[in-house]
Amino acid sequence: MRTSRPARAGQYTALLAYLVFLAFPFLWLVSTAFKPPRELGSLHPTWIPKDPTLANFRQAFDEQPLLHAALNSLLAALAAAVIAVLIATPMAYVVARRRTRLAKAVTGWVVVSQAFPFVLLIIPLFLVLKNLRLINSVPGLVLVYVVWALPFALWMLAGYVRAVPPELEEAAAVDGAGRVRTLVSVTAPLLAPGIVATGLFAFITAWNEFFFALVLLKTPEKQTLPVVLTHFIGAEGVADLGPLAAAAFLATLPSLVVFALIQRRITGGMLTGAVKS
């Protein structure tokens, strides 16, 4: 079906409005990060700072241990993403290839589990980590992130596995390859775009996560970057807006850089998982 010009113009207009809606918070954040104090308190704010400055960034690093907190976030996010993908890949293969009632039940439970709110899970997770003596530790936080990311990773990778033609695995079996060898040598390379996409989403989720880190990490030297950002807000709820915007801008850069570097692989993986042969 051919789309008429008015309909096409309406689609482009809606898409442009949506992009502006998404970009507005980030652009305003960048603008605020470079504004001096007198412009931050102006009654007539502007998009582009009239007198841009780096003082907010220097003040942010002087007031809070941003680099150490960023390292904690990086270690937790990378470990959670890698472990979640390593566990979810063979699980997704079993769920996708074995069409049993148990596999369907697992898939249904994965979908339902995504509706659970954080508050419902924090108490049992806290008790489990307390018994394991992992409270106030980065490994304990990694364990929580893995548990939280596994359902989504499993559901996402199962779609990619279903997109791989079973005939390729049958040909490998004829050549004498076992299940493990087939998964490693035949299926896994074809799942690479999906694995990268799933790992990236798990990484970004863990990098930006705030609630679990706030509850489980108590000592300042173990806190992650999202938790440290709250320290720019005073006891009376008054935010140190300039340093806060500068620190928040730096906190968003890793996700943007990683996404920009591998966006083609992510797009290819998403299309592969969306089309079933």
Automatic annotation (TrEMBL):
Keyword annotations of the record: Cell membrane, Membrane, Transmembrane, Transmembrane helix, Transport
Pfam family, one: BPD_transp_1
Compartments it resides in: Cell membrane
Transmembrane segments: 12-34, 74-96, 108-129, 141-161, 182-207, 244-262
UniProt domain ABC transmembrane type-1: residue ranges: 70-262
Keyword Cell membrane: yes
Membrane-topology annotation of the record: Multi-pass membrane protein
PROSITE patterns in UniProt: ABC_TM1
Protein family: Belongs to the binding-protein-dependent transport system permease family.
The name this protein goes by in its record: Carbohydrate ABC transporter permease
